[in-house]
Structures are given as C-alpha cells and as structure tokens.
Predict the 3D structure of the following.
Amino acid sequence: MQNAILRLLTTLVTLFGVAVVVFVVIRLAPGDPIAMMLPPGASEDDIARLRANYGLDRSVPAQFGIWLSGVVQGDFGTSISLRQDVGSLVLGRLPATLELAGLALILAILLGTTLAVIGTLRRQRMAESAVDLWNGMMLSIPDFLWGLIFIVLLGVVVPLFPISGRIDPSLNPDYATNFLLLESLVRLDFRVTADLLSHMFLPALALALPLSAVIAQVLKQSLKEVMHLDYVVLARAKGFTEITVLFREALRNAVLPTLTLVGVQFTFLIGGTVIVEKLFSYEGLGNLAIDAVINRDLPLIQGIVLLFAVLFIATNLIVDLTYAALNPRLRHG
Amino acid sequence: MSVVLEIDGLEVRTRGGQRLLRGVSLSVETGETHGLVGESGAGKSMIGKAVAGILPRGVTVTDGSIRLDGQDLLALGRTKRRRLVGERVAIIPQDPLTALNPCRRIGGQITDRLIHILGWDAKRARLRAAELLEEVAIRDPARVLNAYPHEISGGMRQRVLIAAAFAAEPALIIADEPTTALDVTVQKQVLRLIGDLQARHGTALLFVTHDMGVVAKLCPSLTVLYAGHVVDQGKAARIFGPAPHPYARALIAATPRYDRPEESLLPVPQDVIDALDREVAQADGAHG
Ligand SMILES: Nc1ncnc2c1ncn2[C@@H]1O[C@H](COP(=O)(O)OP(=O)(O)O)[C@@H](O)[C@H]1O
Ligand SMILES: [Mg+2]
C-alpha cells in the first residue's frame, strides 16, 4: 500500500516535470503558431488579437498556470491548427497507436523467443551464428528504415499489403470505440479484423524487428545460463527432452531478467510509432504528433507529449506487475 | 543377486583431450549401497553424470560401457537411452537450494516424471507424491505439495528431493553428496532417511561422497577414486580393516569427526599423493 502511494506520488512528480520541460522547450523553439494560422496578408492587429485569444501574449509561467489549472479539471486546451479539444483529439487517436504498438510487441516477442529458442536448442555452432547474424542485421537497421524497405518491396514492387491508412475506407465500421481491432474481434467481425491486420502488418513488423532482435539476444544469453542450472540438468536426467526442459523449466526463469530491458525497449518502440505512423499514413498519435509539430500547435504538442509520458510510466508499471506475476518469490501467500 | 549398474573401462574426456575418468569399472547390485569416494575433483560426479546422460557440454564418453539392467546405454539411441534412464535411474543432488525450480510448485516437480515419463494419471501421481512426502517425515504433505521452494527450509527441500527420487521406484539412485550442503544435525537425519528408504524400497544406491565417515555407516562396498582412476575397490570391511590402500587410509584419517569437530584434519600426505601419481602415470602408459 505504502509502495503504491509512493509510486503514485513519483508518477505525478515525473509528469509535472515532463509538462514543465515540454512547455518551456516548445515555446523557446522558433516558429509562431499564430502566424501559420493566418493568411499571409494578415494585419498586426489581427495577429495580436488571435495571440491574446490563445493566451499567448502572457508570460510563460502565467501561460503554464492557466494550462495547468485546465489540466487539473480535465481540460487540455484547444488545438490551434485543428480547433478541437486536445483531450478528445488525443484520446481518439490513442487506441490506434496502442493497437499498433501492441501488435508490434506481440510480433517481437514471438519472433524474438523463437530465435532465442532455436539458438539454444540447436547445439551446432552454425545455428547459433545464423541467429547472431540475423540479430545483428535486425539491430543495425532502425524501424523507420524497415518501414521504407517494406513500402518499397511489399507495397510497390510486390504489392502484397496496403501501405497507407488504418482501414479500407469503404468498410467504415460503425463501432462504439476506436479500438477497432479489439472491437472487431469481440464482434466477430472478421472481415474488418483482416483488413485492419493487413494495414497494420507492415508498420507493426517495422517496429517489431529491432525489438525482436533485442529480445532474441538477451533471452538467448539468459537461457544459456539457465540451461546449466541444477534443476534444469536434473529435469534432463528425469528423461525429459531438451525442448520440454527448455519450455517447462528454463524459459520462465530466463524471461525474468530480460523483462526490464524489454520494457525499456518497448518505450523506444512507442517512440518509433511517431515516424512509422507518418510513413504509413496510419491515423494514430504519432501521426498527429508530427502534424502538431509542423503546425507549431503548442496545446496539441503539449497534450501528446504528456500522453506519451503516461504511456512510458504505464509500461514500467506493467513490467513490474508481470515480473511479480511470473516470480513466485515476489507473490504473497 | 542381479547387477543393476555395471560400468566397464569407462573413459571420459574433455574436448581438449583431458582425461577425467581413466578406465573406471564398478558395479552395483540390486538393493545394494555402493560408496564412491575420493577427494573433490576426483571425478565422482562425472561417473554419475555419465550414467544419467547429463555430462556437461564438451565432455564425452570416449571408451568403455555402461550397462543398466543389462542394456548397454552407450549403444542405445538417444531417445531410447533418455527414456530408459528416466524410468530406471533417479538422482539425489548435492545442493537442495539449486536443484528445485524456483518458479514451479513442489508437487509438479515430484509428479512430472511419474506423469510424463511413466505415464501415470495425475491423481495417482499426486497421491503417490503425498505418500512419499509422509515417508520422508514431512508432516503436512498437502501444504508442501502446493508450496514453492522458497517457502520451505533447506533440510525440507532435501527431503523433497529424496521423496522425488524414490517416488518413481527407480532401480538405481545416484546420490551425489546429498548431505554436503546441509548442517551437521540435518545431515544425520537425511542419511538415516536415505538408508531407511533404500532398505524399504530395495533400491540400489550409488552413494557419492568425500566423507569416509558416511561411507563407513552406509556402504557395505565401495570404490575409491583418485584423479579419475580407481585406486581401491571392494568390501568396506576390508578397506576399513587393518591394511587398506594408503590413499584410503589417508582419506579415513582426513574424515571430520562429528564428536570432535575442533580436531584439525590431516591432509593426505605428500608421499601418498606422489605414489598415486606414479601409479596413475603407469596405468596411463599401459593404456596408450
Ligand atoms: N564442464 C567441465 N568441463 C571440463 N572439465 C570439467 C567440467 N566439470 C568438471 N570438470 C573436471 O572434471 C574433474 C572431475 O570433476 P567432478 O566429477 O565434478 O569431481 P568430484 O569428484 O568432486 O565430483 C575435475 O577435475 C573438474 O575440474
Ligand atoms: Mg562432485
């Protein structure tokens, strides 16, 4: 309980710090949001009036005070470029990004674990070298480059997958939430599911490949150590096959030390959605973030960054909970 | 009496060519307890590992044979050998703290072999596990079966491992220094327990230890190992008698006494070591 309270407090302090830093930095950056909104011939008076309208004529601390008192009441301000409520804009885009990042994480875990298991089970040097080589390649190419490669290869040269958007507009599902993938699964609306997945596959894979290599490498190392432990050797002597021993005795124990790192890497993956979503014109938070920056849309940037910060903190929390769930020594009773 | 385990001329080498076992021969009869003694590093554990098929990476059997129930293990295919050993051999490991999986409940770690290797149904395996826990004097079997290893004491974990070894009614149990990691009072209990269970179940026992005191109590026959080389072998009565091999005598002298632990231990004398090294070198020369 005490832990939970402490954690909540540090979370609030972290978020406050992030808010302050971002607030100041984006106001120091060159470019005037108001000038970009108005047609080229606008008068000084018009500009001044609009600045006052958005409160941009006040000092930075005063602006921050106004913004913060709004946030406390759940009001994140109004987007300058889109003239909509920042809170609902950002929350409306969040599900698309969560689904993309979630799918990428699943792909990365499946791929990374498979590679680690193959590298561990096959005792031949060849298999291990092949896995290492593959990992090195995955790690040296960043997610957005993978995105470009996929767009060219699988979107243009051999057009297997759609390379733009989240869903075929003609489907236009009338859903209650913006968690389209999850809702289509719940509704057993598999035509929509399939279309969503085909749109998400390439961007998710681009995000997943570097993470899969990290998982493969760290997990393989961890497995290698665990496979020599007494209880694993003992299980082998009980007559179990190598693969059973690996999955039943070793994997869970090997996963534990890799979790924290995978959590950190997953926050990088969330960061990676910004460019990858833009590349694939995927209507998520990242895509919105780039437009917001281009338009110097200060309230929107502020809102998006804060939400990303919340996502990072949530990732850490989930890692800790998973760790406790997998490790009986941390459980009660 | 039939022979359960018969090792003949066993050679084990590292990939680099270092000889860890030099033509070891020994046999264990049904229901018999055979002691395997020698200083640390002599290769005692390697013998057990070679039998169980769990030699470390880079260490292999290069010559000799291991017969289990008359079947030559080294001539069997990998799958057949794994199954046969899984059915007929069990190990009581040295360190109870590392020999149980921290992420699995005790119950599953006792019953997994019964269910998946011997093909019992889960309910029967569970009953059997509870029965065995009672046999090793664990008062609350149901609770222990559901516990994780960290929730029970070290002595209790060793008794769990003993129960797990006997649960499958193996023909042979290899106990590799099963009491070394325990404190002295628990050691005695555990030794008595192993002896009792072994007598009751009629299991053959290969008892590995560096402690001559334990061998004297438990093993009617023994093999003395030095640097992978059998230096003496036979009935305990002879080896503990008036004229043992000088190395065996040195080991006996080096045995800590529970009643007088403060007494300083005598190291194996240098002239005995030198004589042994000459003996080993000679045997190696003869071997090629
Ligand atoms: N994985 C390994 N690779 C190579 N040599 C090993 C390995 N493990 C043990 N050895 C060597 O094998 C010899 C016998 O070891 P072991 O059977 O464990 O001795 P002990 O009689 O104490 O049980 C020792 O000299 C040890 O250094
Ligand atoms: Mg040993």
Notes: The first strand of chain B starts at residue 3 and ends at 14. Chain B has one domain: 3-287. The longest helix of chain B spans residues 184-201.
